[in-house]
């Protein structure tokens, strides 16, 4: 028996309007998994893993000690080893979506080394969107922070949870299979 669980294949006509519109968008906003991945360009259910992290007491995760632990978890994910049917060994770094030749990192982790500045309010995390003053990367905080409490001027005081997203590559059939 051949099992098919792809909802697009099962419920969307090959020449349907949704597919035509997606093809139109993908024609202009091409996805490149090997060099310039950007999750904002996703139009398909690409492979990814998400981890939700909270403190057991639901207190603020924007804390240097907590961020150090989250960085350790990130290292575990990146170095996790798995095997295919032939016994070949892989890690996340082998199958990840990349930007600038590097695996795409959960964006909030880019701020790990600046948590002290956040806590002392030398760096304000403006909610809901902030542009990093050093790298000019944008952070859309509702995508990866939850239980957010704000100071009166809409900068983040605390957050109860963080979501880390790890994107896989679908650049070729081998990557799709893994």
The outline comes out as globular
The spatial strand order of the largest sheet comes to 1-11-8
* Sequence of secondary-structure elements: HHEHEEHEEHEEEEEEH
The assembly state of the depicted protein chains is single chain
Low-confidence stretches: none
Q: Number of helical segments? A: 6
Radius of gyration: 19 Å
From the N-terminal CA to the C-terminal CA, the straight-line distance is 22 Å
Secondary structure class reads: alpha+beta
| Structural domain count | 1
Mean pLDDT: 86
Strand content: 15-25%
> Would you report the number of β strands?
11
Q: What does the main sheet amount to? A: 3 strands, antiparallel
List the topology elements.
Elements lengths: L6 H5 L5 H12 L19 E7 L9 H16 L1 E3 L5 E3 H4 L2 E2 L2 E2 L11 H5 L9 E3 L6 E3 L4 E2 L2 E2 L5 E3 L2 E7 L5 H5 L1
Antiparallel strand pairs: 1-11, 2-3, 4-5, 6-7, 8-11, 9-10
What does this structure look like?
This protein has a 3-stranded antiparallel beta sheet with strand order 1-11-8, with no helix packed on it. The protein has 178 residues and is an alpha+beta fold. The chain is built from 6 helices and 11 strands. It has one domain (8-39, 47-177). InterPro entries: Patched_domain-protein (IPR051697).
